[in-house]
Design brief:
The protein has a single domain, classed as Alpha-Beta Plaits (2-Layer Sandwich), CATH 3.30.70. It is built from four helices and four strands. Strands 2-3-1-4 form a four-stranded antiparallel β-sheet. A hairpin with a 4-residue loop joins strand 2 and strand 3. It starts with a helix and ends with a strand.
Length: 112
């Protein structure tokens, strides 16, 4: 498939989480509120929230958000940071308190 200039500029935010069973509901409530904010941002294209139960009493979650370009990602990041500041939410504190492991990053599509 040939990429057009529009699709080649897209940025994919892919975050992976390992969440203990007892932290699942609090984690999901926070993720869903952030996703709602992201959906309202300019440049948002689509998102996925995926879950994989494990046999160890944990859940693997993956969030994937597709953005039009880097500028849209930067604006969305600023909106999320403003929301966290206004609500006094500290993601790192929540991860430590609930025992959540996170791997966060932005990705670009490449031609095969």
């Amino acid at each position: 498939m040939t990429e057009t200039p529009t699709t080649s500029q897209r940025i994919y935010r892919l975050d992976k989480f390992v969440v203990p069973n007892q932290a699942r509901e609090e984690f999901l409530a926070k993720v869903k509120s952030i996703i709602e904010l992201l959906k309202a941002q300019p440049g948002f294209i689509q998102d996925f929230l995926l879950e994989q139960p494990t046999t160890t009493g944990e859940f693997n979650f993956v969030t994937l958000v597709e953005w039009q370009n880097t500028k849209a990602v930067e604006n969305a990041r600023a909106a999320v940071m403003a929301m966290h500041k206004s609500t006094g939410f500290n993601p790192q504190e929540m991860f430590v308190r609930l025992g959540i492991k996170a791997d966060l990053g932005n990705y670009k599509s490449i031609s095969a």
